[in-house]
């Protein structure tokens, strides 16, 4: 096996346009120890925020026992994540300490994302500080095609004005709105390959892989067996993505894409909550993060105080009111059990993303989940009481060895800002604080850091 540059791409011509397809992190790009790129550049982990609205009942969400490894087991709500327990950290006992300005769904989410209460200057607007992803982006993402990260969303149903639909902010009144169409994200990713926008007719007539086949064959001969397998898996995945986009094209050579969500069977329209929409975005996000087109991303499953329905889970109506606030016509117990079912469904959709992270090789003897940190949080704790204690929070992944997994860490009445600060410290050990006013912290949770 010969060393290859970290920026190696596969080149070709498609419809007269030069294209360049990025590759994932291969062992041949690394030094002999697999701890840095061959040119001496450091390996940078990836970061993602994953947000879901309306909180969770602590008795359903929190594991019974605390500790590490065999000392704890996943709770009913987290059972869909059981296979990822070695990478999973559950945080409990924390308390949002910021000044309660505006709706609980708003200031609770603001604290978990920014370490401050809601509102910009004079508490007017959305947030007062940048969100965690935008603090991490300058540290690990400045040299990528999307230095501010990629931002996507599943549900676009109102959150009663709590924080609109955004979870990523450069600062007050400067959100990074999510993309709701996987096909729009596909177009953004492949605009980097040499054309301003993928031509649907061109996709129908010519395959991207055919255009780079000769270059891929030449590189294949220079790789070791593990890297050959990784490259083949990467290209197969790209081939499947193109096939899915092709299914949305109708008509003759000048055909145009139909609704982007038609690219996946039974997926529903943009903004509808379905597992297939989560799968579609998971494919594209993992592709972008694996190839280091970006190292930062956010995903809004449902926004703060979201009134969407979870029809696919058998939960029609408004999840916020009918189930979260126990207002279902069938009664409170029916609503409570429906809310439990909805949270389990949410975690099963999140598992689609984690499965792709775990199954994507990344460098020598590791996968993308080993080399990433995914911060999962919500806007409230107990949904019916609008509690700001025990807002459901997870950290998933090892961040390239900076974070421990397989732990339920409990810190009764501790400042909730310590959790995002701990994540920030995993990417910047020199960070000294996070948040402001009552949300300001200068201490992390050392139990979570290696």
CATH topology-level fold name of the largest domain: Alkaline Phosphatase, subunit A
- C-alpha Rg, in Å? 22 Å
Across the major sheet, the strand order is 4-10-5-9-8-3-7-6
Named CATH architecture of the largest domain:
3-Layer(aba) Sandwich
Topology:
Layout: E1 9-14, E2 17-22, E3 46-51, H1 58-61, E4 67-68, E5 88-92, H2 104-114, H3 132-140, E6 150-153, H4 182-191, H5 200-205, H6 208-211, H7 213-220, H8 225-246, H9 275-290, E7 296-300, H10 319-324, H11 332-358, E8 372-377, E9 393-396, E10 407-410, H12 418-427
Parallel strand pairs: 3-7, 3-8, 5-10, 6-7
Antiparallel strand pairs: 1-2, 4-10, 5-9, 8-9
Helix pairs in contact: 3-12, 4-9, 9-11
What does this structure look like?
The protein has 12 helices and 10 strands. By secondary structure, it is of the alpha/beta class. The protein folds into 2 domains: 1-43 and 182-270, no CATH class; 46-180 and 292-448, Alkaline Phosphatase, subunit A (3-Layer(aba) Sandwich), CATH 3.40.720. Helices cover 30% and strands 11% of the residues. The model is unreliable at 194-198 and 248-263 (pLDDT under 50). Strand 1 and strand 2 (17-22) form a beta hairpin.
């Amino acid at each position: 096996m010969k060393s290859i540059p970290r920026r190696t791409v596969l080149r070709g011509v498609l419809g007269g346009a030069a294209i360049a397809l990025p590759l994932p992190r291969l062992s041949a790009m690394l030094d002999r120890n697999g701890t840095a790129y061959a040119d001496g550049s450091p390996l940078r982990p990836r970061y993602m925020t994953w947000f879901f609205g309306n909180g969770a009942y602590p008795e359903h969400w929190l594991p019974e026992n605390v500790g590490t490894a065999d000392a704890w087991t996943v709770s009913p709500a987290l059972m869909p994540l059981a296979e990822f327990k070695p990478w999973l950290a559950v945080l409990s006992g924390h308390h949002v300490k910021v000044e309660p300005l505006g709706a609980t769904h708003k200031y609770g989410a603001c604290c978990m994302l920014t370490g401050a209460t809601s509102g910009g200057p004079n508490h007017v607007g959305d947030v007062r500080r940048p969100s965690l992803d935008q603090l991490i982006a300058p540290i690990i993402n400045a040299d990528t095609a999307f230095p501010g990260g990629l931002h996507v969303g599943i549900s676009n149903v109102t959150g009663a004005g709590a924080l609109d639909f955004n979870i990523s902010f450069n600062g007050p009144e400067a959100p990074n709105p999510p993309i709701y169409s996987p096909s729009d994200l596909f177009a953004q990713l492949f605009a980097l390959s040499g054309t301003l926008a993928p031509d649907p007719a061109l996709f129908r007539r010519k395959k991207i892989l055919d255009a780079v086949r000769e270059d891929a064959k030449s590189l294949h001969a220079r790789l070791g067996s593990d890297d050959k397998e990784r490259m083949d898996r990467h290209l197969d995945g790209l081939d499947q993505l193109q096939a899915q986009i092709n299914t949305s094209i109708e008509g003759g050579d000048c055909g145009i894409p139909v609704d982007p969500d038609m690219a996946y069977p039974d997926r529903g329209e943009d903004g509808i909550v379905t597992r297939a929409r989560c799968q579609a975005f998971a494919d594209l996000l993992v592709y972008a993060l694996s190839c280091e087109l970006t190292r930062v991303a956010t995903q809004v499953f449902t926004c703060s105080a979201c009134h969407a329905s979870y029809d696919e889970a058998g939960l029609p109506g408004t999840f916020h009111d009918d189930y979260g606030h126990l207002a279902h016509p069938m009664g409170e117990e029916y609503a409570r059990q429906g809310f439990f079912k909805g949270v389990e469904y949410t975690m099963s959709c999140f598992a689609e993303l984690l499965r792709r992270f775990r199954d994507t090789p990344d460098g020598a003897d590791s996968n993308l989940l080993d080399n990433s940190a995914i911060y999962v949080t919500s806007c409230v704790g107990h949904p019916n009481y609008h509690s700001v204690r025990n807002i459901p929070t997870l950290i998933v992944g090892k961040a390239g060895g900076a974070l421990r997994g397989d732990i339920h860490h409990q810190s009764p009445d501790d400042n909730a800002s310590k959790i995002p600060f701990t994540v920030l410290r995993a990417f910047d050990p020199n960070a000294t604080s996070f948040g402001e006013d009552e949300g300001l912290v200068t201490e992390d949770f050392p139990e979570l850091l290696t």
